[in-house]
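Progress note, project year one: complex with zinc ion.
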Amino acid sequence: MGVYDFLEENERLSEDQLALRSRHLLHNQLEFARGQSPYFSNLLRDLSVEELLSDPERWSDVPLMDKGVLLENFDVVRTRSDIPHHAVGAYLDDRSRADEPFNNSDDLLVVSTAGTSGKPGHFVYDRLEQAHIRAQYFRFMRAVLNTVSPTGPLRSAAIIVTGAHMIGYKMQRLLPPEFFRMIPVLRDGRPVTVEETAASLEEFAPHVLTCFGSTLRMLIEYKEANPRFSWRPLALINTGATLDKDLRRRAAEAFDGVGVFDLYGSTDTGYLAWTCERGSMHLNSDCALMEVLDAEGRQVPAGQVGSIVISSFWHRTLPIVRYRLGDLISVSKDRCECGRSLPVVGELLGRENTLLYRRSGQDLHPVPQGVFMELFENIPGVKRFRLVQEAVDQVSVLVEPLPGSGAGLRDHVARRVAPAFGADCAVEVSIVDAIPTSPSGKFLPVERRFDPAAARRASAGTV
Ligand SMILES: [Zn+2]
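Model obtained:
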């Protein structure tokens, strides 16, 4: 059976049947990893897979891995001999080879992550694995297409970094240009302007557009300021951080009630979650075991936010087991009215380093991200902001003002932000013309730049 049909069938299983099937897939995957990957045969050597899966304590003893661990151990994790890391690394370091296959083999997709936050990651997918990623995408697109009725054949576009070893570019570069267009975010090393992007959209007139939330925001603002911008999308697909409610509303107002969908995934793991017709975000629990863990590595109760940890059922070239993505998520107890058995995401907060902390006595407590979204929405004169917590007691804020905002904006923002972090926190506010975004268009409105565990230890040590 094709991977896509398999995923479609899974959506109609009962919760219990789906759980049983997922367990079976995980079982097979762990047997494979232990048998074929030196790294996992060593890691899991003393345990049978059955023992691991039936004893939660043993399972939680399996060490976590992440992008860095995979990169360091690439040559012992891999299950095939023709992808030594020195060759993979040399290929990925050479951007001019992005349109060439690795090792003259069309079977392998060899890709890297941008590494805008830390080191880039290196990943290899064979044909079957690529089929899994496509099937996950089609599963999502079926839900999108249930909500739109284009006249004529569907045209879609994606705004991405082109001509690089990025998965989005490499998987889509050979699609037929009459149905799919890639719109670059950089041209000759220079960021493409919103006017240029708008012109490409008017010219190709895609029904569906996929891009990062920051780019969507830019296009929405452009449409608000230029009512004659004639492009009429039927669906907008946001990747990266989840869009705030305000932006969804503005998108619908600017573009004639357009539907906005979220698609959550990564180069490391394939697609993990996606919005259905009813607006719920479903987890691909038939593609990976997804654990939600607290800072100490314990499973958090349903509904609570924790760090997402992935054990893929289909990564065979480079198996990943208990792989920490660094994103924060909660899984809801609710089921979706669309009838799919896949679990529903409560909240997806994005990267862990967007969780900020305040000092409370000798301890640190997380400050929910929504606090700042709401706070800044209620400060008149703020067009956009970026808040960075450099240390527990040190916060810097960049503010892009609306035209005509008063001279007191800087002090006003400082006075409003400070209480969220406690009395001892220094808040430095700068008013800027434009808030910079990363070249890929990812935009983090809030970011933490210290390790809360280390700060906690330091705080306890000073008493
Ligand atoms: Zn649903």
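The first helix runs from residue 3 to 11.
The chain has two domains: 1-282, 355-461.
No further modelling is planned for this target in the current period.
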